[in-house]
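Summary: Need help interpreting a holo structure output

Steps to reproduce:
1. Submit the protein chain below together with the SMILES for flavin-adenine dinucleotide.
2. Request a joint structure prediction with the ligand placed.
3. Inspect the structure token block that comes back.

Expected: a single structure record containing both the chain and the bound molecule.
Actual: see attached output.

Input attached:
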Amino acid sequence: MNLERFKGTINLAIPLHRFTTWKIGGIADMVVIPQDKTDLEILVYELSKTNTPWLILGNGSNILFSDNGYRGAVIILGDGFKHISTEDSMIRAGAAASLHQLAQKTAQTGLAGLEELAGIPGTVGGAAFVNAGAHGKSLMDYCTAVHGINALGKQTTLTTFRPEYRSGGLPDNFIITDIDLKLTFKNPSEIHALMTKYLEKRRSTQPLADASAGCTFKNPDNRGAGRLIDELGLKGFQKGRAMISSKHANFIINIGEAKASDVIDIIRHVRMKVWKSYGVRLQLEVLIIDEYGNPQNPGRIP
Ligand SMILES: Cc1cc2nc3c(=O)[nH]c(=O)nc-3n(C[C@H](O)[C@H](O)[C@H](O)COP(=O)(O)OP(=O)(O)OC[C@H]3O[C@@H](n4cnc5c(N)ncnc54)[C@H](O)[C@@H]3O)c2cc1C
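--- attached output ---
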């Protein structure tokens, strides 16, 4: 690869558990941090020229990497992608900016909409890709444009996309660099009160001090996945060093040096139990990928 003009950082043989909130994941061949869009274009061009597989990572708060790591380059967007700017009710946020900070900053400006999303520990890019949300609101509800690098390595803007529950409806291999949002002005103290209420709810119901990736399963229609798991008495269920949280049954926590295989064993067990007891097929909310970047769906009920 010719990365002479590349200004970012390249690290070889890096453990991925450092970059995920689950603190799980084996060694990646390469972790690359481009500093700006030019860097990113150079990088994607060189990676495709050399047929090097790559994947883009945000804050690693919705992903389970394999214990075997990843055979390719993990791209993490650097400081040049962390900007947040507002003009009237329009916001442009860089993909590496924190979603929580975006929610706080817009609230301070008197712009309402993101109150429910405060406290979600993702980046703007990751949150847009998975359409992160809570309490019936999702990030893509407010998104008017997504800027990024397409599979051919060219800067592109998308203005039509079909977001769904936990999917931004964006093309595969599209690296989000910034998104535009339109929010509405409201009384800042009302926004602040609402945000405080949702943050308090998070603190009281979620095991925020433990390593996890948030909810493991999507909520099936009209039912909370956590409630179904709880009703089966599975809180505290443990495999290896992974355990179903006693605070929230949809969270699988790493109680210290858990393996991806421990988490996967729990996922299989839960899916089978919920299927046998309720006839409900739980779908994964977290993304599980193998060392070649292929999505995995362990224990899926056919
Ligand atoms: C304690 C806790 C609470 C949580 N609460 C919630 C919640 O209430 N609601 C909710 O929806 N989620 C929740 N989550 C899950 C997670 O925080 C969100 O899904 C978050 O938006 C993921 O963002 P990320 O940057 O960590 O993405 P990552 O996990 O790094 O990546 C997720 C996906 O997005 C892709 N991606 C990342 N960056 C980009 C980019 N720039 N361009 C294109 N694709 C990209 C990745 O390739 C991957 O496929 C929670 C997690 C934790 C640990």
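--- end attachment ---

Reviewer comment: Helices lie at 37-49, 99-108, 124-130, 188-205, 225-231, 260-278. The mean pLDDT is 96.
Status: needs-info
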